Every structure is written in C-alpha cells, then in structure tokens.
Input
Amino acid sequence: MTITYQQGLLASAIAVLAWLGAYALMIRRGFKDRSFGMPIVTLCLNVVWEGWYGFVSDMPLGQRLPNIIWFGFDLGVLYTCLKFGAEDFKDWPLLHQWFKPVVWSLIPIAILLHWGVITALKDSHGAYSASLNTLGYSFLLIAMLLRRNCVRGQSLYIALCVLIGDSAGFWVMLFVTQYLQPGVRPEFIFGLYPVIVLLNVVYVALYIHVAIRDGINPFTRL
Output
C-alpha cells in the first residue's frame, strides 16, 4: 500500500490535532477530577520520546515542531500526575508513600529504553519507538480503567481523540516509512496498528459501559 506525500501530510495534521486535543482534555479532566489521564509508564515514555524528537534529533524543525508542542502538553499531564497521582494508589501504601520518586525514576529508565531502540534500530524518525509506545499506551489505558473501575481522569472525548489520532497514525507511519525512514519494513506497521486501533475501540466501549453503569452520561462529560 502506498500513500502520496499530500495524503501523508494530511494524516499528520489530523494526528497532531487529535493528540493535542487528547492532551488538552487530559489536563482539564485531571484538574477537575484531581487525577491524571495517562498511564504513568506511557507518560514517562512519551515525555522522553517527544523531548528526544523535539529537541535532540537532527530532523528538520518543521518535523520536530509538533513534538515540541506535544512535549509541552506532556509536561502538563505530568504535572497532574505528580500533583494528584499518589491518591490513585492510596490502597497501595508503599507506592502511595513513594509515588513521586517512583515517577521520577521512570524518566531515566525511559531514556535508556529509547536510546537503545533509537540507536540499535537507527530509528531516525521514531517509526519503531513511536509505534511501540502507542501499542503500550493502548494496552495500559485499558488496564488503568480496569484497575480504577471508574472513569476518573478520563472522558469519552479523550478516548475518541486517541482513537482518531492512532487511526491517522497508521497512515502517518506509512508516510514515514515511504519518505522519511524507508528502512522500516511495512509489515511492522501493518502488524501493530490494527491491534492498536482495535484496543482503542475496546477502550471506548469499556469507558461508555463504566460511565453508564455509574450513572454518568459519557456524552456530556467533557
């Protein structure tokens, strides 16, 4: 399957806007619910990924700019995590007590993980690392909802933004592998992204189920 340069740019614009919407809504919901909206491991990986491809990589500024903007929003989500996150683990006494040091310790771990993937796989434009991050996020988002057993820190519109962003991300990765990082096998993208999108759909369905079970209208909860 091939994608034109113009189609790739359109998909990139959709993905950027969808994820900006998701981040902004996560921050808003985090303050309203005194919680956070992104799984902690994924959040730390995202902060490092977007910092690397925004400020460290040698990609042209136009390609780095969305990552720089995302990095700023990531810091907002990280703030809600550090401010409110300990209460999310009040039934886990040790983690509740040491929550902030645990979160900060995940940052250097994320740096090492990304450094290994980026250098070993010559991941110049993040095709491998971004796709693996996204797959992990899709799994952990469902796990977070099941662990909390409530919709705290989340909304249907965050979930839909993530679904739209990751669906567009499939086409973005095809674009990247055709024009920017051609060493990536297309089978890698075709193998991962249908799973990612399916997990996102499952999460949307689970969110609606939990919200309605708890007497919350998912369509009016922004």
About this structure: The CA atoms of residues 59 and 195 lie 28 Å apart.
